[in-house]
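G., the chain you wanted modeled:
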Amino acid sequence: MANELYTTALGAVREATLEPQGVREDATLVASILLANIERYSECLARSRTEWMIHVQGVSFLAENRGVHQTRTKLGKAIFRKAREVIIENAFCNAVEAPSFVVLYSQAIRYDAHDGMDDQLAILEIRAASLFARYCSGDLDQKLGSDAETYQEDLISWELDLDRVEKQSEQGDGGRRERWQRIRCQTCMIICLRVQAATYDSRWHRETLYTNQARKQSEVAGRERLTAEILRNSGAEIRMLNAARQEVYRSPSSLTLTRHLYVIGVCLIDESRQARLAGRMCAAYFHEQMVSVMALLRHLGQANGDLYSLHILQALQLRQRRISSGIH
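Predicted structure as tokens:
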């Protein structure tokens, strides 16, 4: 029955995209978003990654061709934000850059007290995904380091704005939304600091001199602290899900949990390798954090039924083996 519904929905979306009016229909984009999420949690992990990326391309095509005017209505904004989540998720988990229209359309949304900070954070996440994609490609030039420094200033500015908003706001859901905004921000900061460190290390080999060792040590400590905090909050979120016996796909925060664990996992693998090659004592600490990342992903996958977490766990294990054997 489920396969029949999936096939029917897929056929309807394909047929709708053949006509300009079908492309603009809300139902077409909503169906594409649902199809992408279905593939993300498919039991066939090898097949689902390819199918998921195909559906993400479809979501991106539809969201872009609906035009910026979709962000001017309440329903249009809501659907666009869901499409944006899918696109950002794909950008991080597959280390690719998100299309530029996502930023342009997000900037076009009129600021409001409830979702304004979230829209701004989404733009920052897209920029972080771009840094992450360039970092994963190994293109560690000076411009990347400079872009990361500029980005860090914008990220800190957003966090200061969030502090002011939280003090002024009397509404909320007990702070849970704000807590996950913090985690999203922390993940972006880990990417930013790791990119800067990687570009510094790259220049070290060319210039044979590192002029700001104190700054480097401070950034390493900062990444350790942020990673530990994300792992602690992730563990608390999983314990809460288990206590409520709530299936993982029913928790909005847990849907993004895999992405954060993947990003910090990639950074930890590379960080641990560099520390080990340099003979630094912190290599063991990075390894311990990596073990925690994999344990959380395994728990999400096995205990909570998040099949995509198992796929991400496999991807990290493969990356770790390649790094260990000298394959980049």
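The two ends are 43 Å apart (CA to CA).

Shout if anything looks off.
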